[in-house]
């Protein structure tokens, strides 16, 4: 490993330079990350973020090295390892389980659309990352990062001490610990933003529709999306561009036509905060922070202003004090999961939510450490989405999150972005289907990471990336975790 120590914490561009200059091959790059996984994920602090290694990763790397010699690189992701959250389908020798024992032996029939995009870009699928089981939609009080199949993911900044965030816990911890250069997480409400903040990395939760949802074990089609998890905004922008595209299996991606880019790096503007109008949503959201976290966010707001941003502080989101419910998730989960499970190979023991619940009951000691109350609540719905409660909740979510929420306040103050601390405001953007970007903002006295999140209107990723990049470059708060072997 010492031979390649210099690659530690390297960005995509820095790795590409090394590959171009023959300082390292993609084969050796995969070896480097595999050795780090062996040292720190399975031994030492035992982060436990990687659920499976792609057995073909080294062979794929060799093939891409040969292609580079003969034709040159396909683009910035050529020969770059990527770790996937284990609810994303891959047509290879890895399982796709969402961390649940009922799907522990399930092989997907084909790649998720986003995986096809990554492979076309020349990326190497390094493996599957652990997660909060069923993307944290299984039961109340399940710890972030726990799954029956994979066990507990730990935060590399304080293994066993600090919350690792969820549900994309494995991707977040793995990126932070440099077990992979970049990773793909998924979010329904906070599942990228939370582990990004907790692990001091960058997370982009895109507009619902920018990235195809096909081939991802679902929670709710109205809110689900995949997104990049990286150490820098630049890497996140590179990765995001590779994931976009119109997928005939996911009709919502048609809304991205004219709104999507295959390259988001032109929006990396060091002066991106000059004149940017940024609103601070203090009401209710800021009440969730402790004193140290509040100090971190207030300092970040001062840093934004110092870089030329026009700060509107506070702004009041009209719907912020309304009673929000999660009915949409409960109803859509049964419908969406039943469809996904129905497509699986007949050898898989479960093909419906009802069968998952029964499997768990039959394997209670291993599968139900924290119960399955959410699964049970969801299975009691019709699965047809005809219930009055569902329809009214869905329409109310759109009204409160858009017309009386983000749309209203953005127009009222002519904002470019809204600031939320960590993932504390994730719900409103999630219900609206709108994008958010989380960036490291600092650490508590004990060293626990805390992030700042920028949210905006649909398909405002270019603006959010510009703002996030300018903040990141001005503050440079991220410090790698110290891992003891």
Helices and strands in order, then pairings?
Blueprint: H1 12-20, H2 26-41, E1 50-53, H3 57-71, E2 81-85, H4 113-120, E3 124-129, H5 133-136, E4 146-147, E5 151-152, H6 169-176, E6 182-187, H7 193-198, E7 202-205, E8 225-230, H8 233-243, E9 277-280, H9 291-306, E10 310-312, H10 327-342, H11 353-362, H12 364-367, H13 373-379, H14 388-413, E11 417-421, H15 426-432, E12 436-443, E13 449-455, H16 461-475
Parallel strand pairs: 2-3, 2-6, 9-10, 9-11
Antiparallel strand pairs: 1-3, 4-5, 6-8, 7-8, 7-12, 11-13, 12-13
Helix pairs in contact: 2-3, 10-13, 14-15
CATH architectural name of the domain at 2-267: Alpha-Beta Complex
Determine and state the CATH class of the domain at 2-267: Alpha Beta
Roughly how many Å apart are the termini?
Answer: 14 Å
Determine the mean pLDDT. 97
Q: Write down the Rg.
A: 21 Å
Order of helical and strand elements: HHEHEHEHEEHEHEEHEHEHHHHHEHEEH
Describe the structure.
With 485 residues, the protein is an alpha/beta fold. The protein has a domain of 266 residues: Amidase signature (AS) domain (Amidase signature (AS) enzymes, Alpha-Beta Complex). The protein is 37% helix and 13% strand. The protein is built from 16 helices and 13 strands. It has an eleven-stranded mixed beta sheet. A two-stranded antiparallel sheet has the order 4-5. Strand 9, helix 9 and strand 10 form a beta-alpha-beta unit. Helix 10 crosses helix 13. The mean pLDDT is 97.
């Amino acid at each position: 490993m010492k031979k390649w120590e210099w690659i530690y914490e390297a960005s995509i561009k820095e790795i590409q330079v090394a590959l171009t200059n023959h300082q390292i091959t993609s084969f050796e790059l995969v070896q480097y990350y595999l050795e780090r996984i062996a040292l720190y994920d399975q031994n030492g602090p035992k982060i436990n973020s990687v659920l499976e290694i792609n057995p073909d990763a080294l062979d794929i790397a060799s093939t891409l090295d040969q292609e580079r010699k003969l034709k040159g690189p396909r683009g910035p992701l050529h020969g770059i390892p990527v770790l996937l959250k284990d609810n994303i389908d891959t047509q290879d020798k890895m399982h796709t389980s969402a961390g649940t024992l009922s799907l522990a032996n399930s092989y997907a029939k084909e790649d998720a659309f986003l995986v096809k995009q990554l492979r076309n870009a020349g990326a190497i699928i390094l493996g599957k990352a652990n997660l909060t089981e069923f993307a944290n939609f299984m039961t109340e009080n399940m710890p972030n990062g726990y799954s029956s199949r994979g066990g507990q993911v730990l935060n590399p900044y304080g293994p066993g001490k600090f919350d690792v965030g969820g549900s994309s816990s494995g991707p977040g911890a793995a990126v932070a610990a440099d077990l992979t250069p970049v990773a793909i997480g998924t979010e329904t409400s906070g599942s990228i933003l939370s582990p990004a903040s907790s692990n001091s990395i960058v997370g982009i939760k895109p507009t619902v529709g920018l990235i195809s949802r096909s081939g991802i074990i679902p929670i709710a089609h109205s809110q689900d999306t995949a997104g990049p998890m990286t150490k820098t905004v630049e890497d996140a922008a590179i990765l995001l561009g590779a994931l976009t595209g119109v997928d005939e299996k996911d009709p919502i991606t048609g809304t991205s036509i004219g709104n999507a880019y295959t390259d988001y790096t032109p929006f990396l503007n060091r002066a991106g905060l000059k004149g940017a109008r940024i609103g601070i949503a203090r009401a209710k959201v800021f009440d969730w922070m402790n004193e140290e976290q509040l100090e971190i966010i207030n300092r970040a707001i001062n840093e934004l202003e110092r870089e030329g941003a026009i700060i509107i502080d506070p702004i009041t989101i009209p719907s912020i004090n309304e009673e929000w419910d999660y009915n949409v998730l409960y109803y859509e989960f049964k419908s969406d999961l039943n469809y996904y499970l129905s497509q699986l190979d007949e050898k898989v023991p479960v093909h419906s939510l009802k069968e998952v619940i029964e499997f768990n009951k039959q394997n209670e000691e291993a599968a139900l450490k924290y119960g399955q109350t959410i699964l049970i609540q969801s299975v009691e719905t019709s699965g047809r989405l005809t219930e009055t409660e569902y329809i009214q909740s869905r329409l109310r979510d759109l009204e409160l999150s858009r017309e009386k929420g983000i749309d209203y306040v953005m127009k009222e103050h002519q904002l470019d972005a809204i600031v939320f601390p960590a993932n504390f405001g994730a719900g409103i953007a999630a219900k609206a289907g709108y994008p958010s970007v989380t960036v490291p903002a600092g650490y508590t006295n004990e060293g626990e990471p805390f992030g700042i999140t920028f949210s905006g209107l649909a398909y405002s990723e270019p603006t959010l990336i510009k703002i996030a990049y300018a903040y990141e470059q001005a503050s440079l708060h991220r410090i790698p975790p110290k891992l003891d072997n």
